[in-house]
Amino acid sequence: MSGVVELKFRDGNVAEITVSGSWSLYGGMAHVKKCIASLSSKTFVKKIVVKDKGLVSWDSSLVNFLFRISEICQSKNLSIDMADIPAGAQKLVELATTFQSSGVKSLKKRRWNRLEFLRKYVLLVLASLQTSMEFFGEACMGVSAFFRRKVRIRAREFLVILQDVGVNALPIVALISFLVGLIISFISILQLAQFGASIYVANLVGISMMREMGCIMTGVIISGRTGAAFAATIGTMVVNDEIDALRTSGFSSMDFLVLPRIFALTIMMPLLCMFSSFIGIFGGMCAAIFNTNTTVTQYCTQTANAVRVADFVIGMIKSSFFGVLISSIGCLKGLECGRSAEDVGLATTSAVVTSITAIIVADSIFAVIFSAIGV
Known about the structure:
Blueprint: E1 4-10, E2 14-22, H1 31-41, E3 47-57, H2 60-76, E4 79-81, H3 87-112, H4 114-147, H5 155-165, H6 170-192, H7 201-239, H8 242-248, H9 253-291, H10 296-306, H11 309-335, H12 341-372
Parallel strand pairs: 2-3, 3-4
Antiparallel strand pairs: 1-2
């Protein structure tokens, strides 16, 4: 016998529901929807009584039906009596009702706590800014102490860092710069060839590489390569308690770890930028020679006439500043790293993203300043 439900109204405002038979998800329960629809439409009902009238077996289908009846009672503020129902079914219905009410409360709490979340986020940003300002202030004091000969940097370690951030980065910088110059040249040829001015490809490639693309592309590459390495190295030292050991031994992490990396990258970034600019110009020349009638001599002469000393100097100034940004941010994120392996990955990712964002913002500021002074 499949599950059966009957609905009767007695004493004017009491709805009596009787359940019987074998309740199964795969059985026929045609009267369930009709019973629920009838209960939902009756406005005079004040109490619902559910009785067992020969239940043979039951599964979650009975629990679901009773839970829906309970929902109707909650929405209409009705009383319900399920004392005659098996205890197991009653407990499951209570559990489902409790879970749903706690979920609704937590959802409302999350909605009302958006302002609290915003407040905590603002405080977190302000705390991060305070930490960054303290770090950069300490770095400036360390640089000042170095030039006043109160801080010494180990020459052997400094040369190792210098080689890692400079010489070892040449292959990837050369590859990316060559391809960027090639792309800029190809795009310029397609447009300038329409006016018979293909020779001016040298102007576009030379000025863009010397003034903007050389330092930006080098900064992005070094952010992903060297800045991430700084953050991972120092972050791993934090996880292994090596930073605490240095401080306990009386060594300053700023003087011992940060300053050598800042100096090394500040020195090497202009050289890498210069290398990147020349490789990019070479890539543009290759594209121009193979796609136009321009010769090597014509291209070099046109580039020399187009590129000013001011363009070269601007690129060097930007790249030096980018070197300070990348090294400082990488070291800062490493020192802020947590105590787990996951935190090292997060610190590395944060260092790369922050460095690239800082480079773009700084380049925009430089563009406004140089435009205002007419350079």
